[in-house]
Amino acid sequence: MSYQEHYRRAFENPASYWAEQAKAVSWFSPPKTTVLETESGSYCWFPDGELNSCYLAVDLQIEQGRGEQVALYYDSPATGVKESITYNDLQQRVARFAGAMKNNGIEKGDRVVIYMPMIPEAAVAMLACARLGAVHSVVFGGFAANELAIRIDDATPKLILTASCGIEFDKQIPYKPLVDKAVELAVHKPAYTVVYQRSMLKAQMHPSRDIDWDEFQAQAQPAECVVVNGKDPLYVLYTSGTTGQPKGIVRDNGGHAVALRYAFNHVYGMKAGDVWWGASDIGWVVGHSFIVYGPLMGGGTAVFYEGKPIRSPDAGAFWRVIEEYKVNSMFCAPTAYRAIRKEDPAGELAKAYDLSSLRWVFVAGEKLDCSTYEWLSGLLNVPVIDHWWQTETGWPMTSPMMGWESPSETRLGSTNKAIPGYDIRVLDGTGNELAANETGNICVKLPMPPGVAWSIWNQPQRYKEAYLSAFPGYYHTGDGGFKDDDGYIYITGRTDDVINVSGHRLSTGEMEEIVSAHPCVAECAVIGASDSLKGQVPVGLVVLKSGEDIDEAQLEEELVARVREEVGALACFRKAVVVERLPKTRSGKILRAVLRKIAANERYKMPSTIDDETILPEIEGILARRGVVRV
Ligand code: AMP
């Protein structure tokens, strides 16, 4: 069946299309109800189907003969540790850990906060929760104590699972003091913390509150998989909202299992036995969907990498991993490739490795600029596929379907076409649908397909307000962009990344594309600075490629000319400022919102997700010297 036929079926009769796809999942008892509209107006799929997500990811794979297949390749360049964990090994470790949690009172529906680095025990912990029907909430290991405390208070876990430390390049980051501080700050006090002691750093244990990971499970018997319903929550994952209070995105078991199976096979084109690498962290949605659950539920082998794209030990780290594990396909954010490119512009390091196992690579999470796209495609000589999704959806909304014959061609600047089940529309501010090539709010006509979050933890009403109220009948993605004549989607950025110059709405993403195409530029951010005459004017913050020493005035002149040439004089792009580095989240996204505040001379709060707090004052100083902001 062609993509068009799939799309048509999912569009005309979503319930029948997804009921058909749900047959790929081994339910204990198949769903009687396919889809249910909730009180908030969202849609819950397969609410009464009985299943267990850990069973699907682990036990089922063994029943199907994959017991000796590697489930996870753990690779940690900073510690030099590598481990090949088969499905049999994984089942033993997960069942035992689940048994230990059960002995300690964890039951179906209880919450467990996981604050751990990228070590296999973190995946074991997630799967063990799923085995018991407990709800895990993984908090990115690196969030400050206060952020962890906010999440503890919202999720009210019975238990916290942590490790003595994480590793950033070659630096040890002690986790335990952070957890202790968070527990101190939180109003809700979890009964105890289980600590995995890493050999390089032993955490101080609190005698009455902390339990050693090994002791915790020393006497435990393996636990069986608990039957849960499709609508029961599998996990809560916090993501930033427009307020300081993060949104606890709730993922159910049923729709999630159907969606991930579909995505792994059809979107990513992976089969059982293939090697897949989600180069991210379990603290983010990619880690949930495509490091742990997706590849395992699909019988794949997942790479579990505790390292960075560069300085691990060099910018050839990714290529080494691809060769060593014969990675068939991978996913990461474009920022990783930009970091590699900055260190190794000619891609010399890649030439030392055999990358022939790669069929295609996926990128998402932020805009893929054409220049990085071209560099990477030229280097790898395989399709580089930009696709688009967000924490809330849990799986892609647009992508070519690599598992089917003749997937849509990639188109420069586009994240490709809507995946069957996503009826993507571009609406103007009043909810009218825009014509092809007109930029507006990217929305999805309800119902959303299975797997998409349909509630916010503890606050179902907030779900409605955040996603369903702006455009009744639609899910509001918060992204701006357009659709071309052939239905390809182009994401120009968050709707709040649009700047208004003399009444003209302009995409900073578009200008970034042009600026980053300059041969001396490694990466950039274009922000709207306050302008008393025009409201806002764009300013480019530019990071040069290693070894480039172009005169700043000359660079500025060239960039201004390029933007004028490609966007027009109305863009008023007149200033480009060279900076050493850009402020990013730990997952690699440029922190544009805070840059906007700085550029607008507004007070800002240090974002909790920031990678390095010293960057913002550094940039403020540079902008002040260049007269962009007042001191
Ligand atoms: P998150 O929920 O943190 O994964 O962020 C999701 C947001 O990242 C989306 O709403 C988009 O703004 C952005 N995003 C994700 N994928 C892409 C992409 N391929 N191109 C451009 N922006 C993207």
Write a structural description:
- It comes from Neptunomonas phycophila.
- Residues 3-56 form the Acetyl-coenzyme A synthetase N-terminal domain.
- Belongs to the ATP-dependent AMP-binding enzyme family.
- Residues 68-447 form the AMP-dependent synthetase/ligase domain.
- The chain has 18 helices and 30 strands.
- It has 631 residues and is an alpha/beta fold.
- The protein has a domain at 499-625: ANL, C-terminal domain (GMP Synthetase, Chain A, domain 3, 2-Layer Sandwich).
- A 7-stranded mixed sheet has the order 5-4-17-16-18-19-20, sandwiched between helices. Strands 7-6-8-11-12 form a 5-stranded parallel sheet, sandwiched between helices. A 5-stranded antiparallel sheet has the order 21-25-24-23-22.
- Helix 5 (120-132) links the parallel strand 6 (111-115) and strand 7.
- Helix 1 crosses helix 2, helix 4 crosses helix 5 (120-132) and helix 9 crosses helix 10 (285-297).
- Adenosine monophosphate binds next to strand 24 and strand 25.
- List of distinct ligands in this structure: adenosine monophosphate
What does the main sheet amount to?
A: 7 strands, mixed
Fraction of residues in β-strands? 15-25%
Number of strands: 30
Within CATH, the superfamily of one domain carries the name ANL, C-terminal domain
CATH topology of one domain: GMP Synthetase, Chain A, domain 3
CATH architecture of one domain: 2-Layer Sandwich
Q: Measured on Cα atoms, how large is the radius of gyration?
A: 24 Å
Q: Low-confidence spans: pLDDT under 50, at least 5 residues?
A: none
CATH structural class of one domain: Alpha Beta
How would you classify the helix and strand content by structural class? alpha/beta
Please estimate the helix content: 25-40%
Measured between the Cα atoms of the first and last residue, the distance is 62 Å
Number of helices: 18
Strand order of the largest sheet: 5-4-17-16-18-19-20
Pfam families: ACAS_N, AMP-binding, AMP-binding_C
Family: Belongs to the ATP-dependent AMP-binding enzyme family.
InterPro entries: ACAS_N, AMP-bd_C, AMP-bd_C_sf, AMP-binding_CS, AMP-dep_synth/lig_dom, ANL_N_sf
Organism: Neptunomonas phycophila
